[in-house]
Amino acid sequence: MTGYTQLELGGKKRGIKFGNYALIEYSKLNGTDVVEFNEQNAIKLCADLVYCGLKNNCFIKKEIEDFTQEDVLSWIDDMPMSQITDIIQIFESSVTISQGMKDTQEAIDKSSKPNSEKPKK
User: Fold this and answer.
1) Which pLDDT tens digit goes with each residue over 96-113?
2) Are 21 and 55 in contact (CB under 8 A)?
C-alpha cells in the first residue's frame, strides 16, 4: 500500500500510513472485516482510519505512540469535512492499489507453478 500522508494533529506533524498493519488494527478495532468500512459514518470512519494509520506509521518507523484513540477522536473533531473526505480517499486508493498488487502477484504465482499432474501415457 502506498497511502501515506502527514497531518498536523495534537500540535505536531504526524505521519499516517495505511498498510497491512493498519488494516489489521482497523479490523480489531471494529470487530469487522475491512471491506465493511463503508457502513460507518464518515467521521467515525476517519477517526478509526487515522488512529490505525498513526499506529502503523509508528510501527514502521519504530516510534513510540504518543496518542490514544481518544486523542485522535478529539483531533478529528477539529477537522473540516473536506480533510476528512481526503483522508478516506487516500485510504481507499491505497486499498485499491494493494488489491491490484495482490491480484497481480496471485496471477504470477499461478502461472509460475509447475503443473503437478504428470502427462498420461
Assistant:
1) 655 544 555 555 556 655
2) yes
Q: Read off the pTM.
A: 0.61
3-state class of 5 per DSSP?
A: strand
- As given in the structure block, the three cell numbers for residue 105 are 502477484
Our measurement of the distance from residue 1's CA atom to the centroid of its chain's CA atoms, rounded to an integer in Å, reads: 8
Amino acid at 106: E
Nearest to 37 by CA among 81, 47, 1: 47
Q: How many CB atoms lie within 10 A of CB 59?
A: 15
In the chain the first and final C-alpha atoms are separated, in Å, by: 47
Place of cell 510501527: 59
